[in-house]
Write a structure and sequence with these properties.
Blueprint (H helix, E strand, L loop, with lengths): L17 E9 L2 E9 L8 E6 L5 E4 L3 E9 L4 E8 L4 E3 L5 E8 L3 E11 L4 E10 L3 E5 L3 E6 L4 E9 L5 E7 L4 E2 L4 E3 L3 E9 L6 E10 L3 E2 L2 E9 L4 E5 L2 E7 L8 E3 L8 E2 L5 E3 L2 E7 L6 E2 L1
Parallel strand pairs: 4-10, 11-19, 12-20
Antiparallel strand pairs: 1-2, 3-5, 5-8, 6-7, 6-9, 9-10, 11-13, 13-17, 14-16, 14-18, 15-17, 18-20, 21-22, 22-26, 23-24, 23-27, 25-26
């Protein structure tokens, strides 16, 4: 059809896309002009995340993460960007196939937003919620036992704490020789567990080393020093009227008081009566009766 055209003509209808001819009326004749008509690109790209997962959420104990995916657009993808809600942002490598490597994670939730752009400035968005799981172990307690009589024992408390945001699973406790302590189980986030550690020396010598708690820890120290010394019991004797009173520590329960009437002794006999506990010490009272006795 005939149309009057002056200057630049614009057609915004989708049907006008492409190369069109327009006929103008001009002083009794016709003039043909060619127009290129296009509509604006308003279609955003589609971006997908395929690694480390194609689901909306992901959990890891790693301190870094790498992302990868694809992007499509009706015209063309020009750039892929990423941001982390806990800090950090950048431009991905590639467009239709893109990747981001070794991004630092913070403890807890890290929300990643990935955007794909086209030449018209349209942006398509996708997100991935990454939870950084932490299990941070801590050990505390006084495990310096000091001197303990050989054959006796003493116990102290070891406290295992979990300062992470997920449950810590303890598989066992390894103690150096002379020490014992057993426990296995789960410690919730921000919780603790007390464990009894016992020192039981079998000889008069020094003991020590590192106690280790085996677990699925992600950080923290799982070892602690322990020490103690095995000692021999001290037998004390004092006169009381016509008697001799012998005493020794109650933590030497495996020891028996014996005596001989001369030295060097060939035979040692068990002293009687049986000991009683007086003021926290085993005690035996024997009459002297003018007889020589050697006790040990």
């Amino acid at each position: 059809r005939d149309i009057g055209v002056t200057g630049v003509q614009t057609c915004a209808l989708p049907i006008c896309n492409g190369l069109f001819a327009a006929r103008q009326t001009s002083s009794g004749g016709f003039q043909t002009s060619m127009f290129t008509m296009t509509t604006p690109d308003t279609t955003p790209p589609i971006v997908t995340i395929t690694s480390p997962t194609n689901t909306p959420t992901y959990s890891t104990t790693n301190v870094t993460i790498s992302l990868a995916g694809t992007a499509t657009d009706n015209v063309g993808v020009t750039q892929i960007t990423w941001t982390n809600s806990r800090g950090g942002s950048g431009i991905a490598s590639g467009t239709t196939s893109w990747s981001v490597g070794n991004v630092s994670l913070q403890s807890g939730l890290n929300l990643f937003t990935v955007k794909a752009f086209d030449a018209a400035g349209n942006a398509g968005t996708n997100t991935l919620a990454v939870t950084n799981l932490t299990r941070i172990i801590g050990l505390s307690g006084n495990l310096v036992f000091g001197g303990i009589v050989v054959g006796g024992s003493n116990s102290q408390t070891l406290t295992i704490t979990n300062g992470g945001n997920s449950a810590l699973t303890v598989s066992g406790i390894v103690c150096p020789p002379g020490f014992s302590g057993t426990w296995s189980g789960t410690i919730s986030s921000s919780a603790s567990q007390n464990v009894t550690v016992t020192f039981s020396p079998s000889s008069a010598t020094s003991y020590g080393g590192g106690l280790a708690v085996n677990s699925d820890v992600t950080s923290g120290s799982n070892t602690m020093s322990v020490s103690g010394t095995g000692t021999l019991p001290v037998l004390a004797a004092r006169r009381q009227a016509g008697n001799i009173v012998l005493s020794w520590p109650t933590n030497a329960a495996v020891y028996t008081l014996i005596y001989a009437t001369n030295l060097p002794a060939i035979n040692w006999a068990t002293s009687s009566p049986a000991p009683t506990v007086v003021n926290g010490q085993y005690s035996v009272t024997n009459a002297t009766a003018g007889k020589a006795r050697f006790y040990r």
